[in-house]
Amino acid sequence: MSGDELTASEAAGTAGPESGHLVAGQSYPCEACGASVEFKPGTSTLKCPYCGHEQAVAAVAREVREHPIAELLTLPDKPRAAVLGAARAFVCPGCGARTETDDLSARCQFCATALVADPELTERVVPEGVVPFGLDRAAARERLREWTSSRWFAPSSLKKVTEAETFKGSYLPHWTYDSATVSSYRGARGEHYYTTETRDGEEVQVRHTRWYNVSGTVARDFDDVLVAGTVHVDTKRLDKLTPWPLDEARPFQPEYLAGFQTVRYDVEPEDGLETAKQRMAVAIEADCRQDIGGDEQRVHSVATQYDQVTFKLLLLPVWFLTYLHAGKPWQVMLNARTGEVVGKRPYSGVKITAAVVVLLAVVAAVVAVVQLR
User: What is the tally of structural domains in the chain?
Assistant: First the structure.
């Protein structure tokens, strides 16, 4: 055996500490020509990028299901490359080369074979479902054109953007949480009343507020509270891609990942639950205020009990685009299911200046008319 060859145990990542991050990358051969096939967005098929042959993703009988939060206590710890400070190395079944990555799916850096890892081997929590890519590269590029051409105060040249400098499709991990909640609150209800007062010789109505201490209980069931499972993408921008059609999630099958990057989660489910509770708290406080009633409300304290808490890990599809304008890169994210676009864009100083000049001219004209009356 030559120094570059790997034993089966090494390829599976079981040869010892020095090679514990090696993962046998799985690929899916074309039934027609033998090349590796990739998932075709908007379908349930795998397509060969060479001969065009399509083959169906095998159907599974199971459904996407929720997991009790207590199940986390029973899960075994698994080695995480991110924790140990070293990326895993995919072993390509096509050419035998190693591709270092911390992703669940990637491409061989030598032969471009679409590689997918088995999350059962390395992940503490395995993806329960995946919302497959619905928009292909061409459709995403068209949405980019529509988005750039509809930007207010954008340079006219921006409308000519037709190609992204970089164009990558990625599945991003997200946690979802369900919970039945009962919340006890203490607060105050404000009711307005009016008195007549004399000011500067004139009688005016003055509004006052009378406050009453109140307490009560509200209940709400939460379903699929979504929390990003990665810190490598700006969460605020990622949240703007919502809503996601989570009802279109399919049971996880690695075939859906073929041809796309899949980011591993680095936000643990326990931490994600705390973020989910913060999001639930916003809705719960709104329920408290509605229950308090009156003209104004104050919420002093809220104590919430969480029951029947469940979670699951979903993979959601995003196109990442970077286009060049005036020699500067601009980044955009696109919901690969709904087409929602979020990103940065340039502004035209000339158009903004012209708009300000027009506005000032209109204001001056209105003032002149008023003065003539």
Answer: 2
Separation of alpha carbons 113 and 26, rounded Å: 10
Q: How far apart are CA 24 and CA 12, in angstroms?
A: 5
What is the model's pTM?
0.82
Domain assignment present for 294: yes
Are 84 and 152 members of one domain?
Answer: no
The phi, psi pair for 51, rounded to 5°, reads -100, -10
Pairing of strands 22-24, 103-107: unpaired
pLDDT 10s digits, 328-363: 777 889 999 999 988 775 554 544 554 555 566 666
Host domain of residue 52: 8-61+78-123
- What are the CA-CA distances from residue 250 to residues 6, 65, 121, 312 (Å)? 35, 10, 21, 13
Domain annotation covers residue 364:
no
3-state secondary structure of 284: helix
Calpha distance 304→119 (Å, rounded): 35
Residues 22 and 114 in one domain: yes
CA distance linking residue 57 with residue 45, whole number of Å:
5
Q: Match 């995946």 to its residue by tokens.
A: 130
Q: What is the DSSP pairing of strand 166-199 with strand 296-325? A: antiparallel
User: Tokens standing for 150?
Assistant: 């509809």
195 and 304 both lie in a single domain: yes
Which DSSP state fits 102? S
Of the chain, the end-to-end C-alpha distance in Å amounts to 99
- Render pLDDT for 273-298 as a digit per residue (tens, 0 to 9): 999 999 999 999 999 999 999 999 99
